[in-house]
Amino acid sequence: MRRILAIETSCDETAAAVIGDGRHVLSNVVASQEALHAPYGGVFPELASRQHILSIVPVIEEALTKAAVGWGDLDALAVTYGPGLAGSLLVGVNTAKALSLARGLPLVGVNHLEGHIYANWLRVPPNEDKPDPEFPLVCLIVSGGHTDLVLMTGHARYLALGSTLDDAAGEAFDKVARMLGLGYPGGPAIQRTAGGGDPGALTLPRAWLPGTYDFSFSGLKTAVLRLTREIEAAGGDIPVADVARAFQDAVVDVLVTKTVQAAAAYGAREVLLAGGVAANAALREAIAAQSPAPVRYPAIWLCTDNAAMIGAAGYFAWDDGRRSGWDLDVVPSLPLVPA
Ligand code: KG4
Ligand code: ZN
Q1: What is the pLDDT of residues 176-194, one digit of tens each?
Q2: Does 249 contact ligand 1 (Cβ within 6 A)?
Q3: What is the pLDDT of residue 184?
Q4: Model confidence over 128-155: pLDDT tens digits?
Q5: From CA 248, how far away is CA 20, in angstroms rounded?
Q6: What CATH number should be reported for the domain whose range is 3-126+302-319?
Q7: Is the Cβ atom of 114 under 6 angstroms away from ligand 1?
Q8: I need a surface site. Which of 40, 44, 111, 294 has the fewest CB within 10 A?
Q9: How many CA atoms does the CB half-sphere of 173 hold within 13 Å?
Q10: What is the DSSP annotation of 62-108?
Q11: Do domains 3-126+302-319 and 137-297 have the same CATH topology?
Q12: Which atom of ligand 1 is closest in space to residue 248's alpha carbon?
């Protein structure tokens, strides 16, 4: 088995993992900074990079210990070099370069979005006994920073079909959660609260952007703001669960409809979900019910940021001969598909 040590520090999780043959999670350590940033209602970049510096060495040591491997058992290093926060990415990239030099291990820079997609190659439940995903496939990447619909025709072969014109889906969940006083991160809180909402009580608008695979969530966010302000102005109590339910229904409706259309149009053999919002139960259920092709999504703990997914993407890139040199630098706005 070929083993890769992967490092991920693009946002507010300091993470390291050891992955075997790009599919087997030998260890996966995530030091979350959630509590550190919660008082600010979002990630505070300067605090994030400082915390990465404190956490990175113990997190890597724990990943090696949990996988019961030493430096001599590793074949390569993989690290996220973008997209993400510059100061956060720098900690991971410089640590990986130092380790590569000190231990003589080849280094592969990984795109964070590619990592989210490759979480679907990891053989853990619900994908434990499944073979690798089949191409061509359509993947919906929905995270705090991105909403992209991508056609994948082979390893590292991506065609951008559409993306958000304004807010990312996860960002919309986070902002609406804040409006409703549900705290940060918003996605899990909205999901929980929506569970107690009446599905027919309220309807919120959908931005269909016909003829494209693009998305827009800022109008929906504004509609929630307007609705809550009107209710408050009239002296009423905001029906938080009903609003959360209507919001989640609107987001899921557009995401699923467009992904299903793309899968049919491109003859996809599989549909993949990736990114933090792929943890959403309503999204998972709706897409499984409507997709013309089998649907696959990572385990919940592999949807949000982690290093295991970077190890999976890094393995297939490394296997393909991709290598990074000492000039590897962070690229905060790195696209998945170059324009
Ligand atoms: O992929 P991720 O960990 O970080 C980025 O790369 O952005 O995604 C984080 C996002 C947050 O916006 C969070 O609210 C959202 O994923 N999220 C969810 C759920 N769990 C996490 N959104 C909806 N439903 C969930 N269950
Ligand atoms: Zn992410």
Answers
A1: 999 999 988 899 999 999 9
A2: no
A3: 80
A4: 999 999 999 999 999 999 999 999 999 9
A5: 37
A6: 3.30.420.40
A7: no
A8: 40
A9: 31
A10: HHHHHHT--GGG--EEEEEEESS-HHHHHHHHHHHHHHHHHHT--EE
A11: yes
A12: 23
Pocket test for ligand 1, best of 34, 89, 167, 173 (most atoms within 8 A of CB): 173
Helix H or strand E segment including 36: helix 34-37
Nearest ligand to the C-alpha atom of residue 12: 1
Regarding the beta carbon of 314 and ligand 1, being less than 6 Å apart is answered: no
Q: Which value, in Å, is the radius of gyration of the alpha carbons in the chain? A: 20
Sequence-ordered list of residues with C-beta below 8 angstroms from that of 92, at least 6 positions apart, any chain: 7, 8, 9, 10, 52, 56, 79, 80, 81
Q: Checking DSSP bridges between strand 13-20 and strand 24-32, what pairing results, if any?
A: antiparallel
The ligand with the least distance to the CA atom of 280 is 1
Instruction: Answer for the pair 27, 55: CB distance below 8 angstroms, yes or no.
Output: no
Domain boundaries in the chain? 3-126+302-319, 137-297
Core vs surface per residue 128-167: b (16+ CB within 10 A) or e: eeeeebeebbbbbbbbbbbbbbbbbeebeebeebbbbebb
CB 170 near ligand 1, within 6 Å: yes
Query: pLDDT digits over 89-124, tens only?
Result: 999 999 999 999 999 999 999 999 999 999 999 999
Using a 6 Å cutoff on CB, does residue 82 contact ligand 1? Answer: no
Q: Pick the residue whose CA is nearest to atom 16 on ligand 1.
A: 276
Q: Domain 137-297 falls in which CATH fold? A: Nucleotidyltransferase; domain 5 (3.30.420)
Rama region for 84: left / alpha / beta (φ>0; ψ in -120 to 50; rest): left
Task: Compute, in angstroms, the gap from residue 33 CA to the centroid of ligand 2.
Answer: 14
Give which of 47, 64, 279 is closest to 173, Cα–Cα. Answer: 279
